[in-house]
Amino acid sequence: MSERTHGEGGGQGPAARLQHLFEGHRLTPTQRRIAHCMVRRAADVPFLSSVELAELAGVSQPSVTRFAVALGFDGYPALRRHLREVSPAEPAVDAVANEYQKAVEAEIANLRHLSDLLADPAPVERAGQLLAASRPLPVLGLRAAASQAYGFSYFAAKVHPDVRLLDEGGTMLADRIDAAVRAGATTLLCFALPRHPREVVEALAHARSVGLTVVTVADSAFAPVAAHSDLLLPAAVGTGLAFDTACAPMLLGRVLLEAMCDDLPQAQARLEEFDVRAAERGLFAE
């Protein structure tokens, strides 16, 4: 995780090591799809054949071979051998676990991968500085990511003086981004989750064209929004159920809140003021 993705560092987990392996390579859309699949199945990849990986990624077997060559290996066997050398085997999920347990275990693995990425706190700290300094702070999230954007905005509004939630698409989205820029915004925070709406990609391109720095929380460093993000922070989603689960992106959003608070001198005072007023109003059942 760094400007665009995670940087170097020892003691990384398998997902972080894969992200670092892919850095610096100009990958085609098909190759980005393979890379995304590998990150999501980081613990299994060193033991998959090229045919199995191709099936998981929904590409052809020759595409997997070309991908390995693009990374500088003689072929996929050399890439897999490298991954086995740098990635110690992790315990597999109990084969008798039911589908619900497997989904939970997959989310636990996603959280472990996020923890690995946060071993280098610099990208999140940088994001916190950018978010704290932007007045107003537009927060974008559409469709599946709308709840993530709402949750962040709800809590951020307690400490940040001007948070503007952008959770509805349509022709007015660019207008609202323009209005935020006219009001003094310097940074836009985006939550982007699959399936990625085309209008989110277009909105980020517009945001950068009008001078905003774009900080994005996405399911992968290879998501379609990556090309339009100045700082991308990846957090994988779970895919074991009928609908994706987003525990890691939600937690990363809370981590960003913490980092932002660290750069808002009045954050603690505002929280204490809110608590006093809430008590006076009997706002919460104790």
UniProtKB/TrEMBL annotation:
- Matching InterPro entries: Homeodomain-like_sf, HTH_RpiR, RpiR-like, SIS_dom_sf, WH-like_DNA-bd_sf
**Gene3D superfamilies this protein is in?**
Glucose-6-phosphate isomerase like protein, domain 1, Winged helix-like DNA-binding domain superfamily/Winged helix DNA-binding domain
Q: Name one Pfam family in it.
A: HTH_6
Q: Which residues form the HTH rpiR-type domain?
A: 14-90
What this protein is called in its record is MurR/RpiR family transcriptional regulator
